[in-house]
Amino acid sequence: MTRTMTFNELRGIKDRLPDGAIHRIAGELGESVETVRNYFGGQNFRAGKSCGTHLELGPDGGIVVLSDTLILDRALEMIRAKETVPS
């Protein structure tokens, strides 16, 4: 399923991830850590690949169209789990 959001919203999701989440997502999905970082706006395409993201310049960092939401969905699950854990 395709999802559209601003680049700043996507980076905000990355910033809310618990420690080690990028490595966990990469391991769970069989992707490289750099590929997951690239999904969230990284630019290291030598060590990682592109993951179906398309960026158009504009306000709030531009618009990102995600053609594959698997990494995003897993990240949102991790954030929800982190935010529901009692302190």
- Segments where pLDDT lies below 50 for 5+ residues? none
The general outline is globular
Structural class: alpha+beta
Spatially, the strands of the biggest sheet line up as: 1-3-2
Distance between the termini: 34 Å
Largest beta sheet, briefly?
3 strands, antiparallel
Instruction: Count every beta strand, where a strand is a DSSP E run of 2 or more residues.
Output: 3
Strand content: 5-15%
How would you spell out the order of helices and strands? Answer: EHHHEEH
Number of helices: 4
* Mean pLDDT over the residues: 86
Question: What is the gyration radius calculated from CA atoms?
Answer: 13 Å
Helix content: 40-55%
Brief summary of the model shown:
Helices cover 47% and strands 14% of the residues. It is of the alpha+beta class and 87 residues long. The protein has a three-stranded antiparallel sheet with strand order 1-3-2.
Structure overview:
By secondary structure, the chain is α+β, with helices and mostly antiparallel strands. It is 47% helix and 14% strand. It contains 4 helices and 3 strands. The protein has helices at residues 7-16, 21-29, 33-39, 70-84, and strands spanning 3-6, 53-56, 63-66. A 3-stranded antiparallel sheet has the order 1-3-2. Helix 2 crosses helix 3 (33-39) and helix 2 (21-29) crosses helix 4 (70-84). It is globular, with a radius of gyration of 13 Å. The termini are far apart. The model has no long low-confidence stretch (mean pLDDT 86).
